[in-house]
Amino acid sequence: MNRTARSRAPSILAGIAASLAASLALAQGAAYEPASKYNLQPPVTEIATRIYDLNTLILVICGIIFVAVFGAMFYAIYAHRKSVGHQPAQFHENTTVEIVWTVVPFLILILMAWPATKTVIAMKDTSAPDLTIKATGFQWKWGYDYLRGEGDLREVADGISFYSTLSTTLEERTNARAKDADYLLDVDNVLVVPVGKKVRILTTANDVLHAWWVPALGVKQDAIPGFVRDTWFRAEKVGVYRGQCAELCGKEHGFMPIVVEVKSLEDFRAWAAERRKATTAGAPAPSAAAGAPVPQTVAASARTGN
Ligand SMILES: [Cu+2]
To answer: Which of 44, 96, 152, 196 fits a 20 to 30 Å CA distance from 84?
Structure first.
């Protein structure tokens, strides 16, 4: 170690210690408290509940297999050890053993695949929605368009259109200020939906792959440029549910959260009436704002006249 390096080392150590102390102080001041650090978010839709129960069921099955296999193995290693004079058993080409160790895993897989397949089929059933909303992924924000789809609420929010952009401050991101409870999970315009109604979300993207993911609602769907995919949820509880883009989409992939506010039907109607007034008054909309990139699906349908 030369002289310069030796004299520099203590100041580097002091710097590390100071930044550790600072981040510790920030961590103590942070208010973020997840419902559980070790489990999925509390589900608020039937699908999310089914996913939650599936996760628990399959974890329990895996746990039982783990304990049984390792229990048998360690018991065999211990009880049949050479030092007590145990002779190895001979069961080469034992048809019964071979049938048992093929059939048992097969049955376990069927037991796991049955409820999983039923849930996946239910997740894909986007028929008969009460409200249809298009979610467009942009680098790096979401755009929402309430469409005149089908169902009772098709007229209520028709034409509402806005961008939803991260609202976490730069001070929080650079640790100049303590991070608040919804760090990187807060947006300027939240997606508002009614409770107890089937909401169909059409996903697409303007530039690269994104994915619309809200764990508490049991929804995760890729948003693909030039294609339209769909998913659905029926929230059973009024509240605010947060998610994130779940497809690596560039340098600000972690900075385009999703916030869904579930309101009572009356509150949703009131919000929609208010918002429609604002939209018709000339507020910028994702597909109408001057200079804004037009989603490819819209552009394509405009070109072909569909
Ligand atoms: Cu993204």
So the answer is: 96
Residue 97's φ and ψ, nearest 5 degrees, are -60, -45
CA pair distance 218, 124, nearest whole angstrom? 12
Give 251 Cα–ligand 1 centroid separation in angstroms. 9
Domain with CATH 1.10.287.90 in the chain: 46-124
Handedness of CA 15, 16, 20, 21 (dihedral sign): negative
Tokens encoding 138? 């942009």
User: Which residues of the chain form CATH 2.60.40.420?
Assistant: 131-300
Instruction: Encode pLDDT of 247-274 as tens digits.
Output: 999 999 999 999 999 999 999 999 999 9
Q: Residues in the chain, how many?
A: 306
User: CATH classification of 46-124 is 3.40.50.720, yes or no?
Assistant: no
Distance in Å, CA 274 to ligand 1 centroid: 29
The rounded Å distance from CA 231 to ligand 1 centre is 17
Enumerate helices (H) and strands (E) in the chain, giving the number of each: 6, 10
Ligand 1 centroid from CA 148, angstroms: 26
Residue 246 has pLDDT above 60, yes or no: yes
Q: 248 CA distance to ligand 1 centroid (A)?
A: 6
CA of 135 to the centre of ligand 1 (A): 12
Q: How far is the CA of 141 from the centre of ligand 1 (A)?
A: 7
The pLDDT tens digits of the residues spanning 103-117 come to: 999 999 999 999 999
**Ligand 1 centroid from CA 196, angstroms:** 28
In the reported structure, the alpha carbon of residue 266 is separated from the centroid of ligand 1 by a whole-number distance in angstroms of 32
Angstrom distance (rounded) from CA 103 to CA 110: 11
Q: What is the pLDDT averaged over residues 26-54?
A: 77
Q: What is the pLDDT of residues 164-213, one digit of tens each?
A: 999 988 888 899 988 888 899 999 999 999 999 999 999 999 999 999 99
CA–CA gap between residue 156 and residue 217 (Å, rounded):
22
